[in-house]
Amino acid sequence: MNLGYNRTNSGGIELYCEYKQPNAMGFVEFLATAWSILLLIITMPFSLFFCFKVVREYERAVIFRLGRLRTGGARGPGIFFVLPCVDTYRKVDLRTVSFDVPPQEALTKDSVTVTVDAVVYYRIQDPLNAVVQVTNYSNSTRLLAMTTLRNILGTRNLAEILSDREAISHAMQASLDDATDPWGVKVERVEIKDVSLPTQLQRAMAAEAEATREARAKVIAAEGEMKASKALREAADVIHASPAALQLRYLQTLNNISAEKNSTIIFPLPLDFILPFLGQTK
Questions:
Q1: Which among 41, 42, 85, 187 could bridge 176 via Cys, Cβ 3.0 to 4.6 Å?
Q2: Which SS3 state, helix, strand or coil, does residue 201 take?
Q3: pTM
Q4: Hey, what domains does the chain have and what are their CATH numbers?
Q5: 130: closest CA among 66, 73, 67?
Q6: Cα–Cα dist 267/32, whole Å
Q7: With 90 as the cut, is the pLDDT of residue 94 above it?
Q8: pLDDT tens-digit series, residues 12-49
Q9: 175 near 152, Cβ under 8 Å?
Q10: What are the helix (H) ranges across 43-164?
Q11: Is 186 helix (H, G, I), strand (E, B) or coil?
């Protein structure tokens, strides 16, 4: 059945459907089919062992009779019947298949050469198209995956490739799924495995990261010194306002000095003891 539309004289759209009948069987095909049935009857019951085939739950069989696709779609799971000499069939596995995309060397948008590899998961959702529309759907999907990966890498910057691998995986999956849909192939998942950079670029990025860390450490140290100086200034103001606090600080300093095992200990004299003598001298 083919669907379409026609434009009417009034500017509207008229839908129509057309049923396309399969081509009638030719005379030679009819004779070959009749001869196969006759041979099947003559050689019974031994011929039954060659006529009944079985496909598993995860398999489907696409049958051709004298080169033409048989009506009814793919057979399975279970048992199906084929005529000897005129019917051929091909099994299609419906389970999910994974393959590794070889490392692809590509030039990014900011002119950096990177090497990226990935893994692709796909399955067959339409056995008829997988057999009729493409010669080898597995090999074709592999080649298309390599080309798609290089094309997507060429549209991204190096920073995007390193930081946003998930977006690249989704973009690659969508592109592959659209391209393989006429083949009956469904791309379920794409994962970026590894991103390799040139050795010289790795050294430059490491040096840049180290310089950034050192600059950040110096900024943090300067901020700490500024906060410490402010705290010392406030402490000095408090001690200056209270002579008793200065005396307690002096005693604490003597306690810290005595805790150390030194052979010589110098006791500093407070300025309060020296000020009277300085006044008499003046």
A1: 187
A2: helix
A3: 0.64
A4: 2-93 (no CATH), 97-197 (3.30.479.30), 204-281 (no CATH)
A5: 73
A6: 123
A7: yes
A8: 444 444 434 445 566 677 777 778 778 778 878 777 77
A9: yes
A10: 48-51, 127-132, 137-153, 158-163
A11: strand
